[in-house]
C-alpha cells in the first residue's frame, strides 16, 4: 500500500514557520509515515527565502512553480485552485494526499495520526450524487453555513482533491454572501443539491461583534423550516462525504456518542456541546467532531419545539427526491424561500439576495445584482509591496488573536507599516468623527468569516482571519441593522483592523 504524500500550497511568507514544518516532514518521511513532499508556489518565491532554497537543494521537497493568475476572486480562490491543481499533478494517481500551507496548519500529533489510522471509505448511498470516490478528512465545518469547511489543511485521495481545484465561479453570481471556503467546497457539489442552491440565494450575511443583531439573525433563521432543512441536509452531506475532525479512528471510538436529550438550541449558541465550538464575535458554531453531526442525524436532541421541527426536517431530507426536486429557480422561488427572504429584510433592510423582485410583474422580471467580486490584478511593484505589507499585518493580527508565539523580529517588522497606517488614518483632520469600519453595501463586501483556521484551540473563525492573500472579511450588516454603511464624513478614522492591531501590539492610538 502506497504511503501518503504531502502537498504544501501557497506563498511561504514566514521562512521560520515553514522550516519547522519541513523539519516535521523530514521526521515523518524517515519514520515511513509519508512518501514525499511537494511545494506548489509561485515562480521565484523560494528565491526570496535562501534557507528554503537550500532545503530544496538538499532534496527535501519537489518544487512546482507557476505564475500567479491575473484573475482575482474573493479570498483569491483562483490562486488557491491553481496552486492545488499543479501541486497534485506531481503526485502519483490514486495516492492519499495531505494538503496544507507553508505558513498555517500546524503538523501536530493528531495530523500524523490521521495519516496512519483514518478510514476514508465512502459507501455509496441510493439517490446521492457520486461526488468523491473516498471521503475527505477536514478539521471542521460550520453548523449553519453549508459548505463552509476549513480549507487550510485536509486529507484525501488525489483525484478527489482535484475536484476541489475545479471549483465553479457561479458561486459568486448565483449565491448570496458566500465565503472563500464555500467557493472551494461548493464547486464539487454545484447544482446537485437544489435545496441548498435555493437557500444560498437568500442566505443572510453574518454579523460581526454585535450580540444583539447576531442573535436576531440566528432567531430569524431558526424560525425558518427551510433553514432547518438546509442544516439537516448539510449535516447529512458532511457526514457522508467527509470525515470531521483531525482525530484518529481509535480516538473517535473512545469518545462515544453525545448523550440523549441534549439541547439542540444550545448547540447553536455558547454551550458546552461536545465537538461544537461557538465563536462569539460572529454568533455562529463550528463542528469539530463527527459525533456532533451524528447526534443530530440520530435525533439524540431533546424534543422541544425546535427539536421537533428539526426531526421533521431530518424526515424530509432523508428522501433524496425531496431535496433534488426543490425549486432553485430565482424567478419562481418556493414560498419558504421567499418567506425567509422577507423575514431577513424586515430585520435587516437592504440585505442583498438573488431572487426576482416581488413587484416585477408577470411579463418583466427584475433581479437586482451588485457587481461580482471578481477583478484583474495589476502587477505593479508598488502594488505588490502594498499587498505583501497588508498581508503581513493581517497574519500578525491573526496569530496574536490566536495566541500563537510571535518573535521579536516579527513585531519589530510591523512597526513601519503600523506607523504608516496610523499616520494616513489621521492625516487630515484628527478630530473628525469616526467613519464606519464598513465602507460598502452588503453585496460588495464579503459577509462571511475569513478562510484561515489553525488546527488548534484557536480554530474558530475570526473576522480578521487570513485568506489566501486576501483581507479580513467584515460584515456589511452594521450595528444599526441596515446592511448599509452610513456615509462617511471628514477624514477616515482608524479602521477596525488598525485598532485591533494596535491593541494587540499594546501600543494604543495617540489620537484616541
What does this entry look like structurally?
By secondary structure, the protein is α/β, with parallel strands linked by helices. The radius of gyration is 23 Å and the shape is globular. Helices cover 39% and strands 9% of the residues. The chain has a 7-stranded mixed β-sheet. It has a 3-stranded antiparallel β-sheet with strand order 7-11-10. The longest helix is centred in the C-terminal third of the chain and has 21 residues, at 381-401. The N and C termini lie far apart (62 Å).
Strand order of the largest sheet: 3-2-1-5-8-6-9
- The Cα radius of gyration reads 23 Å
Percentage beta strand: 5-15%
DSSP, total strands:
12
Q: What summary fits the major beta sheet?
A: 7 strands, mixed
Overall morphology: globular
Residues in helices, as a percent range: 25-40%
Helix-and-strand structural type: alpha/beta
Q: Whole-Å distance between the termini?
A: 62 Å
Mean pLDDT: 79
Oligomer: single chain
Contiguous low-pLDDT stretches (5 residues minimum) are 425-494, 507-512
Count of individual helical segments: 19
